[in-house]
Design goal:
Elements lengths: L16 H52 L7 E8 L6 E3 L6 E5 L6 E9 L3 E5 L8 E2 L2 E7 L2 E7 L3 E2 H12 L4 E8 L2 E11 L5 E7 L2 H8 L2 E4 L4 E5 L2 E5 L3 E3 L5 E5 L3 E9 L1 H26 L1 E2 L4 E2 L6 H23 L4 H4 L1 E3 L9 E3 L1 H19 L5 H9 L8 H68 L1
Antiparallel strand pairs: 1-2, 1-18, 3-17, 4-14, 4-18, 5-11, 5-13, 6-9, 7-8, 7-12, 10-11, 14-15, 16-17, 19-20, 21-22
Helix pairs in contact: 1-4, 1-8, 1-9, 4-5, 4-7, 5-8
């Protein structure tokens, strides 16, 4: 509250003008301030409840977005077993030394025989022994890896270590790795490719220089070839530049470790697929619960919640329940009723419209008829998409809950503006009251002065009369 004191009391009247002005302004402010406080607290109370419901609807939309994807129920498990090439029997049932498989959603279920013929290798060249401390004449070497090449300038009197460093500086960014090795024969220049595959072979030639540089180049011998990995999957040959084979089987990745044969088994994962449906069920129930919490009324304490009796909340809950009941009816018509699919609304003793999912029945439905279940839930015409159409009306930039939240926040801003305007009016009232009381004080001072003068005159007259 503003301080309306101005440093002195009533000189002529003896009144505490500052206190009187403050009390009068407070009396003027009280009813308007009470109205704004009530409006502000009511708006914040509604915002709190609305925020909880909007958050629950956002979570439901996220769950439905995930369930709507065509691969939402396509969870897979994968395992591999190394086989004996001679008999086809299992060589190791617990560990596969040939490869490590991983799969994504919707990878085709089945068993795949994978024969790793050869691994991808990186090209490597190794030079002959050179006497430690040997120096080379100036020149230029051209180093190529695949289709990229770069010229390397060699300074006069360069050592083998200097040549190694020059190659790394010029060709390192292209994937050439030069190193200096030491043996009983002296120093050896080693050139290796950072990438595997036949397309990443290294070549080196002397563009200009003397015989010592030429001898160094000619002395480089292949230690490891630039080779692609070769894999036969169910009789089909696949070649790759690396030892990671992707999507030869859709969604499957094979990390190759050694030559050999393995059987890769891909199976449906009902529990993994059920996670998406479980998430949807929890989010749907949370949305209904949020509406219930925001609209409940405590009969014992006669206390309403933030949105008790709110028409928008009743409409949202009704829409969710009605659409869900229609969708469950549609599933039943497809042969996916509660007994088959395990999904139904909560019954006695709490028939509140929430959903219940029987995991055992759902797993059985996925095992027996996964294509039908997947089609019923996912895609543009599945349960998730249809229910999401309703939820999207409430969330997002133009959602009903979003717009209402914006409206309530605008009300709070308006309350703040009204408070500022009230302060201005109260300041003006205080100035008016001060002016009036100062004038009154001045008048009373004059009257006091006149009264004193009259009293003196009367006293003088009385004295004169007594002397006679």
């Amino acid at each position: 509250m503003a301080d309306y004191s101005f440093g002195y009391g009533g000189i002529g009247s003896g009144l505490d003008i500052s206190s009187i002005v403050s009390q009068l302004v407070a009396a003027d402010r009280a009813p308007q301030n009470a109205r704004l406080n009530t409006l502000e607290s009511t708006t914040k109370f509604k915002l709190s409840g609305l925020g909880s419901v909007a958050s629950a609807f956002d979570a439901l939309k996220t769950a439905l977005d995930g369930l709507q994807k065509v691969d939402a129920l396509g969870a897979r498990t994968v395992g591999s077993t190394m086989l004996s090439l001679a008999s086809g029997s299992t060589a190791n049932a617990t560990a596969d030394a040939v490869l490590t498989p991983t799969v994504g959603r919707n990878t085709p279920v089945g068993s795949y025989q994978v024969e790793v013929l050869s691994l991808a290798t990186a090209h490597k060249l190794l030079g002959a022994g050179t006497e430690v401390g040997s120096k080379f004449s100036a020149g230029t070497l051209r180093v190529a890896i695949g289709e990229e090449s770069v010229d390397v300038a060699i300074k006069a009197d360069a050592t083998l270590a200097d040549i190694r460093s020059a190659i790394n500086d010029a060709a390192g960014k292209h994937g050439v790795q030069a190193a200096l090795l030491t043996s009983d024969a002296g120093h050896h220049l080693s050139l290796g490719s950072a990438k595997t595959g036949a397309a990443n072979g290294i070549t080196i030639e002397m563009v200009e220089g003397d015989s010592d540089l030429q001898s160094l180049v000619q002395g480089l011998a292949q230690q490891s070839p630039a080779a692609d990995a070769k894999v036969v999957i169910d009789g089909l040959l696949t070649t790759a530049a690396s030892n990671t084979i992707k999507d030869a089987v859709p969604g499957m990745t094979l990390v190759l470790k050694q030559a050999g044969t393995s059987r890769v088994d891909v199976s449906a994962d009902p529990a993994g697929s059920r996670a998406a449906v479980d998430g949807f069920v929890k989010a749907y129930n949370a949305a209904l619960k949020a509406i219930g919490t925001a609209t409940t009324y405590n009969a014992e304490t006669k206390t309403p919640s933030s949105l008790t009796g709110d028409a928008q909340m009743r409409g949202a809950a009704s829409q969710l329940r009605n659409v869900m009941n229609d969708l469950l009816g549609g599933l039943a018509a497809q042969g996916l009723d509660a007994k088959t699919l395990g999904l139904q609304t909560q019954g006695f003793p709490n028939p509140d419209g929430s959903l219940v999912l029987d995991s055992t029945k759902f797993n059985e439905a996925m095992a027996n008829n996964s294509a039908k279940v997947i089609a019923a839930f996912t895609g543009e015409t599945g349960l998730a998409a249809k229910l999401n159409d309703v939820v999207k009306r409430y969330v997002g930039t133009d959602g009903a809950l979003t717009l209402r939240t914006k409206g309530l926040n605008d009300q709070l801003k308006d309350v703040a503006k009204q408070r500022e305007a009230l302060d201005v009016r109260m300041d003006a009232a205080a100035k008016r009251y001060r002016t009036q009381f100062v004038a009154l004080d001045s008048l009373m001072a004059q009257m006091t002065s006149t009264s004193s003068a009259l009293a003196q005159q009367l006293s003088a007259l009385s004295a004169q009369t007594s002397n006679r």
